Amino acid sequence: MTEVVIYTRPGCGYCSLAKNLLASKTDDFKEYNIWAKDEYKAEMLKRSGGASTVPQVFIDGDHIGGSDELYALDRAGHLDALLGR
Questions:
Q1: CB 58 within 8 A of CB 49
Q2: Domains in the chain: how many in total?
Q3: Cα angle vertex 56, ends 55, 59, to 5°?
Q4: Cβ 8 vs Cβ 33: under 8 Å
Q5: What is the pLDDT of residues 4-47, one digit of tens each?
Q6: Strand order in 56-59's β-sheet?
Q7: Theoretical Cys-Cys bridge with 73: which of 5, 45, 65, 79, CB 3.0 to 4.6 Å?
Q8: Considering only CA atoms, which of 35, 36, 59 is closest in space to residue 47?
Q9: How far apart are CA 67 and CA 53, in angstroms?
Q10: CA 67 to CA 61: how far, in whole Å?
């Protein structure tokens, strides 16, 4: 099974867009609210190479980027393959 992780914060429109796209493609992704725990933000920064904006998306440990990158992958027809569909 493909592991999908998204780091978000409340009130973030781009986070909502990314989560909606992921929800339309898979019923199983892990969401970490970076405002809920400082550890989540530190983990996101480390995993993303310092990217501090949200959302930050990872598929099977690979850093995808934010909402724009996620939608670009979908438009190019590559997101389904990454999600094992």
A1: no
A2: 1
A3: 130
A4: yes
A5: 999 999 999 999 999 999 999 998 999 999 999 999 999 999 99
A6: 30-33, 4-8, 56-59, 62-65
A7: 79
A8: 59
A9: 10
A10: 17
- The tokens for 28 are 């199983």
Global pTM value:
0.96
The contacts of residue 9 (CB under 8 Å, 6+ apart) are 15, 33, 34, 35, 54
CATH number of the domain enclosing 24: 3.40.30.10
Task: Please write the tens of the pLDDT for every residue from 35-70.
Answer: 999 999 999 999 999 999 999 999 999 999 999 999
Owning domain of residue 16: 4-82
